[in-house]
Amino acid sequence: MKKIQPKTFIVMNQVLEKKVFSQRMIWRSCNNITDVSIGQVNKVFNELIKNNFVKELSKLEMRYGIKRYIDVDLSEEKRYPKYYLQDPIGLLKYISLFRSMNDLRVFESSVHAKKDQVIEELGKQGVIFSLGTAMEKTSSYYRSDEITFYSNAPDIIISNMRNAIHGDTKLVCFKMDFLDNIHDVCSDGFFRKDDDGVIYTGEVQTVIDMFCDGKSMYTKPLLERIWGVSI
Description:
Elements: H1 6-18, E1 20-21, H2 23-31, H3 38-50, E2 54-56, H4 59-64, E3 83-85, H5 88-98, E4 105-111, H6 115-124, E5 128-129, H7 131-135, E6 146-150, H8 154-160, E7 169-174, E8 191-193, E9 199-201, H9 203-212, H10 220-227
Parallel strand pairs: 5-9, 6-7
Antiparallel strand pairs: 1-3, 2-3, 4-7, 5-6, 8-9
């Protein structure tokens, strides 16, 4: 399967995050995360426009905004052409064609401990909770039957679990495919910290991961809240 390159993925993430934007706005946002050139951003934009995921704003839309993105400020960088995310579900499905969470799976395990206790302990080890575990933080209805997370150091976690008693609490660890250091970014929508300092993927990244894991049907509340669309 063809893979999405890390910098391309970051641009696409920021397009989903910003919703209404100029190329320079996305370029600056991406450069808060990693080194991305304006040429790379332009190349991704051309692909997104060709597939009708992104569309340039008309003068009327520039003046009055877009109904479903009414909360987005269009005043920044008036001298640059503005674009908007026309088909968020299409873009999410496009990403999932070239990115599979199954390919990023590092290990699975099961331990004899309460779910909250495991999350607290793993949080101390610097993991980033993702997929269903992150969804639980945004939905009062969704409940996952496993603890899912990204880790920079899975070998350390495996070593720490060596003496753990096998049980019913399932863990699934994934490798990060678009950032070398997952602790470099706790802004721009990628990750967020709760009050206890435990880190989860942000809402947009959580939706992307769910699509890439074949679980898009569970993201309906977030799709409606973030982009005003239904699946």
